[in-house]
Design a protein that fits this description.
This protein is an alpha+beta fold. It has two domains: 7-61 and 201-303, DD-peptidase/beta-lactamase superfamily (Beta-lactamase); 67-196, Beta-lactamase. The protein has helices at residues 6-17, 32-35, 69-81, 102-106, 117-130, 134-146, 155-163, 166-177, 185-196, 202-208, 210-213, 228-241, 247-253, 290-303; strands at 43-48, 53-57, 63-64, 152-153, 198-200, 217-218, 223-224, 258-260, 265-270, 274-279. β8 and β9 (265-270) form a beta hairpin. α5 crosses α8 (166-177), α6 packs across α10 and α12 (228-241) crosses α13 (247-253). The two termini are 16 Å apart. The mean pLDDT is 96. The structure holds glutamine.
C-alpha cells in the first residue's frame, strides 16, 4: 500500500463522519484528572516507514498516554531481562477487564500478559529493579523514539493516579505476596503511574512506534530498538491482548496489533507500512475509545490493512 496526499483528505472526511459518536462513550473518571478532559476532541495520524506523517483533527494536542505506555515499558524490560521475563508474566489473552484481580489469585500471582494492569505493574517492577532511575529512563526512551525533548509526565495526572490507585495497589500487593514483585510496592506503583501520566500527541505517538512495523529498527535514526524477534513478539501480544476483552472483536474487525489507553488513544501497528494513532477521550465499557475504534476500523477497511 502506497500512501498518497489524498490520505489527508480521507482522514479529514472520516473524522467529520465520527461527529455523532462523540456522545456514545464516557470520559474516564476513575482517575479524577482525566475526568477534566474535554470529550469533544479527536484526532487521527498515520506515520509511514518512509518518514511521512498524515493527520487530521487535533493531532498536536497532548493527551494522557495511559496504558499505551505498557508497550514502551515492555520493550525496555525485554531488552534488559531477556527470556527470563516470560517466567514472571504470561503471553495469553485474559478475557477479563484490564484491571481485574480474580484471575491473578487463581494463577498464583503470574499475570496473564504484560498489557493488562497486573502485567504492566510486573514490568514496572522489572524496570525499577534494573534501571537506576527508571522514570527518567522511560522518558529518555520516548524522547529518543520521538526525537522530541519536551515529552514529560503530567504532574496532575500522576498525582491523581497516586491518590486513586487502590486497585492497582491491590494487584501489586497480591503479586508481592506470591513473591513475583522484587522491589517495594510503592516504588513500583510510582513508576507505573508516572509512565501512564506521559503527555504525548497523535503525531508523536505514531512516529514513536514505527520500529514495531519495521522489525525493531526505528526508521529515520536507523537504530535497532529491539530485536526482530521481540518486535514480532510484542505485535503478537498486542494482537491477542492489546484491546483487553475486546481484543477478539478488534482482530475480527480490524486485524492489526493494537493498544488502547483510558486517555482515549489507540495505536495500531501496520507491519512494513507504518503506525496509525487515533484519539478521542470518551470510552466504551471495555475502556477503549469509541471514536478512535471507529477511525482505525474504517481506515483499515478502506486501505485493506488487515493482516489476516
Ligand atoms: N493508569 C491506568 C490504570 O492503571 C491505565 C489503564 C488503561 O489505560 N487501560 O488504571
Amino acid at each position: 500500500m502506497k500512501p498518497s496526499t489524498d490520505l489527508t483528505t480521507t482522514l479529514q472526511q472520516m473524522l467529520a463522519q465520527c461527529q455523532p459518536l462523540y456522545t456514545q462513550g464516557k470520559v474516564a473518571d476513575y482517575i479524577p484528572a482525566l475526568a477534566q478532559v474535554d470529550g469533544r476532541q479527536a484526532a487521527v495520524a498515520v506515520a509511514t516507514l518512509d518518514g511521512q506523517v498524515f493527520s487530521a483533527g487535533a493531532a498536536e494536542q497532548n493527551f494522557s498516554l495511559q496504558s499505551i505506555s505498557k508497550i514502551f515499558g515492555l520493550v525496555m524490560a525485554m531488552n534488559r531481562l531477556g527470556d527470563e521475563l516470560w517466567q514472571r508474566v504470561n503471553m495469553e489473552p485474559s478475557g477479563q477487564p484490564f484491571n481485574s484481580i480474580v484471575q491473578l489469585e487463581w494463577e498464583k500471582g503470574i499475570p496473564r500478559n504484560p498489557v493488562i494492569n497486573a502485567g504492566a505493574i510486573l514490568v514496572a517492577d522489572v524496570l525499577v529493579s534494573h534501571y537506576s532511575a527508571s522514570k527518567t529512563a522511560f522518558l529518555t526512551f520516548l524522547r529518543r523514539l520521538t526525537g522530541v525533548e519536551a515529552i514529560y509526565a503530567d504532574p496532575l495526572v500522576y498525582q491523581s493516579e497516586l491518590e486513586h490507585g487502590n486497585r492497582n495497589a491491590a494487584l501489586a500487593y497480591l503479586m508481592k505476596s506470591f513473591g513475583n514483585i522484587e522491589a517495594e510496592v510503592p516504588q513500583v506503583l510510582e513508576h507505573y503511574f508516572h509512565q501512564c501520566a506521559t503527555a504525548i500527541n497523535c503525531k508523536q505517538l505514531a512516529q514513536s512506534l514505527l520500529f514495531l512495523a519495521n522489525r525493531g529498527v526505528q526508521p529515520g535514526c536507523n537504530e535497532q530498538i529491539c530485536s526482530r524477534r521481540d518486535a514480532h513478539r510484542v505485535n503478537a501480544i498486542l494482537s491477542t491482548s492489546g484491546m483487553y476483552d475486546q481484543s477478539g472483536e478488534f482482530a475480527f474487525k480490524v486485524g492489526l496489533p493494537a493498544k488502547s489507553g483510558v486517555g482515549g488513544a489507540i495505536v495500531a501497528i501496520v507491519p512494513q507500512f507504518g503506525v496509525i494513532t487515533a484519539w478521542s477521550p470518551p470510552l466504551n465499557r471495555f475502556g477503549n475509545s469509541v471514536v478512535a475504534m471507529q477511525l482505525i476500523s474504517q481506515l483499515a477497511e478502506e486501505l485493506g490493512l488487515s493482516l489476516f
